[in-house]
Write a structure and sequence with these properties.
The complex is a heterodimer of chains A (114) and B (112). Chain A is mainly β. Chain A has strands at residues 4-6, 10-13, 19-25, 31-38, 42-49, 56-57, 64-70, 73-78, 87-94, 104-105, 109-113. In chain B, the strands form 2 sheets. In chain B, strands 2, 4, 5, 9, 10 and 11 form a 6-stranded mixed beta sheet that branches. The chains are: A mainly beta (114), B mainly beta (112).
Chain lengths: 114, 112
């Protein structure tokens, strides 16, 4: 069973704080993703990585950065948290290939910025 | 980039009836269309997917149809049961482009 684990289920942070969201997968997947989930907007891609130290911007990268120093770990960083970053954050991983394959999601981190 | 629209946003059905969710996509190069189910408080999980070389795919009570010409695809759930209550997301992507573009989601409620 693929396991994608996010370090926190719930987080409350103050405006202006630097926030780290951690994600670890145990299936040796090359691809890793960070999505943000908001009601009525679905899942929107923030950043993704297809290899160690590689990253690409998704649809809404502003205010975020990422780090992938090891294959199994993908971190999302909010440089200076703002209230409009209050949301559910979902990490996912998948195997690369010619044919797209299933994305496996973590359980999510509900972040509240006050 | 790809734009995926999903309708309806909410759907309430009587147990035993069918549910249909429709999605349209904008990028004619998209060729992979998965559907994810997210139960309350849980992570999204793949329930079925279809590739552009196939028009229809079934798995027990769920089926997906794809119309490439019209650029839309649909999820059909037959004989709905209470455990089908969840949020369903459609998505689209191209080959070798691992990014999935998701629809806004449909909240399905199955009334007993």
């Amino acid at each position: 069973d693929v396991k994608v684990t996010q370090s926190s289920r719930y987080l409350v942070k103050r405006t202006g704080e630097k926030v780290f969201l951690e994600c670890v997968q145990d299936m040796d997947h090359e691809n890793m993703f960070w999505y943000r989930q908001d009601p009525g907007l679905g899942l929107r891609l923030i950043y993704f990585s297809y290899d160690v130290k590689m990253k690409e911007k998704g649809d809404i990268p502003e205010g975020y950065s990422v780090s992938r120093e090891k294959k199994e770990r993908f971190s999302l960083i909010l440089e200076s948290a703002s209230t409009n970053q209050t949301s559910m954050y979902l990490c996912a991983s998948s195997i690369p290939g010619i044919m797209n394959t299933e994305a496996f999601f973590g359980q999510g981190t509900r972040l509240t910025v006050v | 980039g790809e734009n995926v629209e999903q309708h309806p946003s909410t759907l309430s059905v009587q147990e035993g009836d069918s549910a249909v969710i429709k999605c349209t996509y904008s990028d004619s190069a998209s060729n992979y269309f998965p559907w994810y189910k997210q139960e309350l408080g849980k992570r999204p999980q793949l329930i079925i997917d279809i590739r552009s070389n196939v028009g229809e795919k079934k798995d027990q009570r769920i089926a997906v149809t794809l119309n490439k010409t019209a650029k839309h695809f649909s999820l059909h759930i037959t004989e709905t049961q209470p455990e089908d209550s969840a949020v369903y997301f459609c998505a689209a992507s191209r080959s070798n482009d691992y990014k999935l573009s998701f629809g806004a989601g449909t909240t399905v409620t199955v009334r007993a």
